[in-house]
Amino acid sequence: MSNTIANRANRASVLQTILSAGLVAGCFDLLAAIIVYSVVMERTTDRKLLQGIGRAAFGNNTFQDETSLALSGIAVHFFIAFCFTIFYFFVFPYISFLRKQKILSGLLYGAFAWCVMNLAVLPLFHIANIPHKWDSIVRGAVILMFCIGLPISIIVSRYYIKKSAIGSASPTN
């Protein structure tokens, strides 16, 4: 009986950690993109940025109105943030570097996320070409390093530190 309760509590804790890390990373990344591309660089509006994400994922004619298109962009954005969160959460116990160097591993994971998105996902779906200008590469990578990689690393490592203090470092225990 107590083992079942402990398993439920652990599953809830796993889910809470993944939700927290994914939401924080997704919010930070989205906010950074809006600040950089809409406010500082004035390349687009926040609404058009979100619509662009939705349009890239679902096509031009999927949604009747622009609000639905922008909301779909938010959904896709957070889906991607959660994919990166879930992957990191489950590889964390198996790579000692992630445990020993949470700040550096978070920054490197953000750079990895940039590579995955810009070298695989976006070109695979014909969403965007690989950026060729260094300023664009650095800008995008830095945003993902600090807004995706770092928060995911910090939040996930806190979960595992807490679990190891209790005596169960595996996400399934």
Low-confidence stretches: none
Please report the total strand number as a whole number.
0
Q: Radius of gyration over alpha carbons?
A: 18 Å
Structural class comes to mainly alpha
Dominant shape:
globular
Note the gap between the termini.
Answer: 15 Å
- Proportion of residues in extended strands: under 5%
Largest sheet: none
How many helices?
6
Overall mean confidence score, pLDDT: 90
How many domains is the backbone divided into? 1
Helix/strand order, N-terminal first? HHHHHH
Helix fraction bin: over 70%
What does this structure look like?
The protein is built from six helices and no strands. The protein has helices spanning 2-40, 46-58, 66-91, 96-100, 102-124, 134-166.
What labels would you give this structure?
mainly alpha; single chain; 173 residues
What's the layout of helices and strands?
Layout: H1 2-40, H2 46-58, H3 66-91, H4 96-100, H5 102-124, H6 134-166
How would you briefly describe this protein structure?
The protein is mainly α and 173 residues long.
